[in-house]
Amino acid sequence: MAGTAGSPKYIHELKRVRGLPEKERKALEAVEEKFAFRSNEYYLSLINWDEPDDPIRRIVIPSPEELEHWGRLDASEEVDYTIAPGLQHKYDQTALLLLSDQCGGFCRFCFRKRLFMEKSREVVRDISTDVAYIREHPEITNVLLTGGDPLFLSTRKLTEVIGSLREIDHVRIIRIGSKIPAYNPYRIINDPALLEMIRTCSTAQRRIYVMTQFNHPREITPVACQGLDLLQEAGAILANQTPILRGINDDPAVLAALLRELSFIGVPPYYLFQCRPTLGNHHFAVPVEEAYLIIEEAKKNCSGLAKRPTFVMSHKTGKIAIVGLDHEYVYFRYHQAADYDNIGKFMAFRRDPNALWFDDYRDPVREMRVS
């Protein structure tokens, strides 16, 4: 890796990516102008530049396919659940704080790329109003810190946020949604203050969870494992989530390897997501029913600890789990819902092998609510 283990250099322009041929870079200028690029020397060192279809390259290097007109910037209509700048409250027990408009790298399939395009109008800088709202709603037991990436904030700022939330008795879990353990594990390894904050704030009855995002097994490097181990030693609970992505983890053998490796290192797979219909993401999308079959095939080669993730769509109405297929029908269940009465609701639709999202299905043949 170019650079030092102390602090991998961040790169904001494709012209500074050494492995990218000039001709290809020129062809990507229009993409880079529309959708921002960001990475760092550590993560770029994981790419095999001799392989055009390298999955790590596909995660972080732009593609002309991003200019295809498909999808929306706010595919899950998060705006409808925004209470105040940076604060979303969609599910009773969970509030979400958008703290950052920066990441260790910009995933090309990001479902919040609007944050990097619209000058972070949704990201909160002063959380006092948001904390006051959370304090006034005792049903909120979980707060998810996200963005962008909260671990891209300074440890001082992150400590202030978590300290404010720790003063609220009913907030029992603080989650940090982060791809930093994959993008730049040195952020963790070289910051004892971050680990001390977690050690102080993740207590026996009020835990801090770090929700990692490893999309491909090659991201799980020895350095990444070192960072994860330090988080665990400091008292953080770890879990991983990833979308199913064309050309990255849509091979059952690759997905099985990812789930197995996560279980080996003590990072339980939590959610597998259907790729959201976000602008620029069409080439990553795998049809719902194909993705379900890929996941089920991958699970055949996993132990029970590795086959635990729930396959869901983060739809505007809730998290909709894809729970089964037969020759005629696909079956869904609301794993979580904005409308409390929908939680557990079961739905059956006629199969559509081309459906990429819940809205592509029409007229359920059966619906059943939990009584």
Can you characterise this structure?
The chain is α/β, with parallel strands linked by helices and 371 residues long. The protein has helices at residues 22-27, 29-34, 41-44, 55-60, 114-117, 128-135, 155-166, 180-183, 186-189, 192-201, 222-233, 252-264, 288-299; strands at 10-11, 39-40, 82-84, 87-91, 94-100, 142-147, 173-178, 208-212, 237-244, 269-274, 310-315, 318-325, 329-337, 346-350, 366-368. The strands form two sheets. Strands 3-4-5-6-7-8-9-10-11-12-13-14-15 form a 13-stranded mixed beta sheet. It has a two-stranded antiparallel ribbon with strand order 1-2. The relative contact order is 0.10.
Mean pLDDT: 95
Give, in spatial order, the strands making up the sheet with the most strands. Answer: 3-4-5-6-7-8-9-10-11-12-13-14-15
Strand portion, in percent?
15-25%
Q: Separation of termini?
A: 57 Å
The assigned structural class equals alpha/beta
Number of strands: 15
**Can you tell me the overall shape?**
globular
Helix fraction, binned, reads 25-40%
Number of helices: 13
The radius of gyration over CA amounts to 20 Å
Order of helices and strands: EHHEHHEEEHHEHEHHHEHEHEHEEEEE
